[in-house]
Design the sequence.
């Protein structure tokens, strides 16, 4: 029985490795105004096999970090995390007020409709790194129209950007 299960797992693993390691959906970046030098990028990540988001970068930002929001003395603050673990088949949502990819040291304001290339680096269970290119669309800073649902929420996040 044990042997059977193991064989099944191996077969599963082989099938999964043929696919893109991590599926990235609905990637977007919160638009910025002049003099604003940081913003967040949000998306949904689903890994076919256990993976860890360990690094992100973008040509629009001088510095890119992976952030989470956490309560600190009853105040929501964001802080950098070394990596974001993705369990197999479980979608992790990066969203305003929660996990996000932080784009800092922005070289120019980001306007709604613009496309922002982002490079994500994932580490698999064998510590092998996979680089994945995505394109995130900039959504208007205010929820207004164009923001759409999901993006409209955003409360609490903007205030957290005090670098
Ligand atoms: Cu942040």
Sequence:
């Amino acid at each position: 029985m044990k042997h059977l299960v193991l064989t099944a797992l191996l077969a599963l693993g082989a099938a999964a490795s043929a696919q893109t390691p991590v599926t990235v959906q609905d990637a977007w970046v919160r638009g910025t105004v002049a003099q604003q030098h940081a913003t967040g990028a949000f998306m949904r990540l689903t890994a076919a096999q256990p993976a860890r988001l360990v690094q992100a970068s973008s040509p629009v930002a001088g510095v890119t970090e992976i952030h989470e929001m956490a309560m600190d003395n009853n105040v929501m603050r964001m802080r950098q995390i070394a990596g974001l673990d993705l369990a197999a088949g479980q979608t992790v949502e990066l969203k305003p007020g929660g996990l996000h990819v932080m784009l800092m040291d922005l070289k120019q304001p980001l306007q709604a409709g613009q496309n922002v290339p982002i490079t994500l680096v994932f580490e698999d269970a064998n510590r092998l790194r996979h680089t994945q290119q995505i394109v995130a669309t900039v959504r208007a800073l205010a929820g207004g129209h164009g923001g759409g649902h999901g993006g409209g929420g955003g409360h609490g996040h903007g205030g957290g950007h005090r670098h």
Remarks:
- The longest strand covers residues 61-72.
